[in-house]
Amino acid sequence: MVDLQGQYAHIKEEIDAAVGKVLAEAHYINGPEVQVFAEDLARYAGARHAVTCANGTDALHLALRALDLRPGDEVITVPFTFVSTLEVIAILGLKPVLVDVRPDTFNMDVDQLVQAITPRTKAILPVHLFGQCADMERILAVARHRNLFVIEDACQALGAEVTFSDGSVHQAGTMGDIGCTSFFPTKNLGCFGDGGAALTNSDELAAAMRSIASHGMSQKYYYDHIGINSRLDTLQAAVLSVKLRHLTDYIHARQRAARLYDEALADCPGVVTPAKTSYSTHTYHQYTLRVAPEHRDNLRQQLAGAGIPTMVYYPLPLHLQAAYRNLGYHEGDFPFSETLSKEVLSLPMHTELTPDQIQYITEQVRV
C-alpha cells in the first residue's frame, strides 16, 4: 500500500545527515530540531503557530482541551472516520453528536450539520477524509452564525488547499480555530514513528496547547493546567524537517498517480473513482474506490491473488461500534456512512508508484 523504503532511498543522504546530527548532539527531548520543524510547518501551512505533539490523536485532544469545553458540551462530527476523531470527544466527557457524510466526497454533509445544532453545541469537528477538504466555507459560515468553534481533523489532508468564493486560498488545518494533523509513517508527511501537530492563528490557543502538552507547565515545575505528556521526539522532528521540503513534490506524485488511476478506471463497470470538488484540491492520502457491496470482497480477494494489497477504510462506521453504543445511535441512522463501509476499497497510493505498476493494478481491477 505504501513504499516507505523506496521513499527513504531517494532522500537517504538528507535523512541520515539530519538523524546523525541529533545523535551527535544527544538532545533527544525538545532538541532544537523540534522548534525548527514547528516553525517550518507553520510557515508551510500559512499558520501563525504549529504546536507539535506525540501523535494526531493527541493533537485533537489538545485542541479540545484548549477550547475549555465542559463535560456535556456537544461536539458535532461524523461517523465515517478513524476512531480518534470520536475517541477524544468521548474521553474528555464531551457529547459526540454525529451527522452523516456525503456519498460523493465522504466528508461532512453541511445540511445535516445545520439540523444537528442545539443550544448545547459548542464545536464542529469536520474531517478532511482521504486527503480532500470538507466544505469549509459553508461550515465556517454556520459556525460564525451560531458562535461555534471549529476544529479541523486534517490528519489525512496536510497540503490540501481550499479556494473560497472570494478567491482566497487556504491550507487544510488553518481555516478553523485549530487544525490537527498526524505524522504517522503512512501519512503524506510521515515520520519514522509517531508524531502530530496542531495549527492555529491564535496566540492564546497555541500557548494553552503547548502548556497542556507539557504537563500543564507555564514554566519549569509550575503548572497552570492539568496536562499530559505529549512530545514530538527530536529525531522525528529532524526526519520531518527533511521530508517537509519534499512534501509538495510528494503531493504532486500522488496526484499524478491518481490521474492515471482515474483515466484507466473511468469506464470500469461497477467501479466509482474518487469524486473531486470544485473548492478543494485532493492530496490522495488514499485512493478509494466505491464498488458494489456484492462485488467488493471478491475484487479484494482477486487483487490479493495478483499480489496487489488493498484496504477497507472503514469496515464499520463508528456509531455501530461496540464502544460507542452508549451514544444511542442505531443501524439506519447514517445510511451513507453505512453504505460506504460496505463499498469502499482503497488501492495502493504512495509517492513511488510507477505508471507500469498502476497499469498492472488497473488491469487486474478490470478483469
Count of individual helical segments:
13
Determine the strand fraction and express it as a percent band: 5-15%
Second CATH tier, the architecture of the largest domain: 3-Layer(aba) Sandwich
> What's the CATH topology name of the largest domain?
Aspartate Aminotransferase, domain 2
Largest beta-sheet characterization: 7 strands, mixed
Biggest β-sheet: strands ordered side by side in the sheet:
1-9-8-5-4-2-3
CATH class of the largest domain: Alpha Beta
What's the order of the H and E elements? HHHEHEHEHEHEEEEEHEEHHEEHHEH
SS elements, strand count: 14
Radius of gyration: 20 Å
Kindly summarize this structure in a few lines.
The chain has 367 residues and is of the alpha/beta class. It is 40% helix and 15% strand. The longest helix is centred in the C-terminal third of the chain and has 19 residues.
Please tell me about this protein's structure.
Helix content is about 40%, strand content about 15%. The chain is globular, with a radius of gyration of 20 Å. The protein is built from 13 helices and 14 strands. The chain folds into two domains: about 5-100 and about 105-245, Type I PLP-dependent aspartate aminotransferase-like (Major domain) (Aspartate Aminotransferase, domain 2, 3-Layer(aba) Sandwich); about 245-365, Aspartate Aminotransferase, domain 1, CATH 3.90.1150. Strand 6 (about 160-165) and strand 7 (about 170) form a beta hairpin. The chain is an alpha/beta fold. The mean pLDDT is about 95. Helix 2 (about 10-25) packs antiparallel against helix 9, helix 4 (about 55-65) packs across helix 5 (about 85-90) and helix 10 packs parallel to helix 13 (about 355-365).
